[in-house]
Specification:
Its main location: cytoplasm. The protein has about 140 residues and is α/β, with parallel strands linked by helices. It has helices at about 20-35, 65-80, 110-115, 120-125, 125-130; strands at about 1-5, 40-45, 55-60, 85-90, 95-100, 105-110, 135. The chain is about 35% helix and about 25% strand. It is globular and about 35 Å long.
């Protein structure tokens, strides 16, 4: 069983124009990462706080090889589902891979790099107060 932390401190703003599409995109992303045994999957709501995406997904892998495999698998799943053709930054042997899937950006980190860059603190607002744990079976 994996845990997904869904930090949604949603500011007062207009809802996403295609909430169903966004929910489907997030579901495919988090399911793919969970299948690949990603650790500490976090979804941050960026609505009204960033112009580049509606959500940010952050996850950790235990090796550079695992991170690379997660990125390749996720890219394939998104294409198969006709959801996105993500742009990918970072390559094999990298401790951080960034995937831009349109309304969702995905950061895949080694634990040390994730701690160093601390994106949850930067983008999560009052992360501890807004965090909600959702068990994924």
């Amino acid at each position: 069983m994996r845990t997904i932390i869904n930090a949604t401190e949603t500011p007062a703003s207009a809802p996403h124009s295609d909430e169903e599409g966004l929910a489907r995109l997030l579901s495919v992303i988090t399911d793919s990462l969970d299948e690949d045994k990603a650790e500490n999957i976090v979804v941050l709501d960026l609505t009204g706080r960033a112009g580049f995406a509606e959500r940010m997904v952050i996850a950790s892998g235990l090796s550079e090889r695992q991170i690379s495999a997660m990125a390749q698998h996720l890219e394939r799943r998104l294409k198969e589902e006709n959801l996105a053709r993500p742009q990918i930054e970072g390559d094999q042997g990298s401790d951080w891979v960034l995937m831009d899937a349109g309304d969702v950006v995905v950061h895949l980190f080694m634990p040390e790099s994730r701690e160093l860059y601390a994106l949850e603190r930067m983008w999560g607002g009052d992360f501890d107060a807004a965090a909600e744990e959702i068990a994924v079976e």
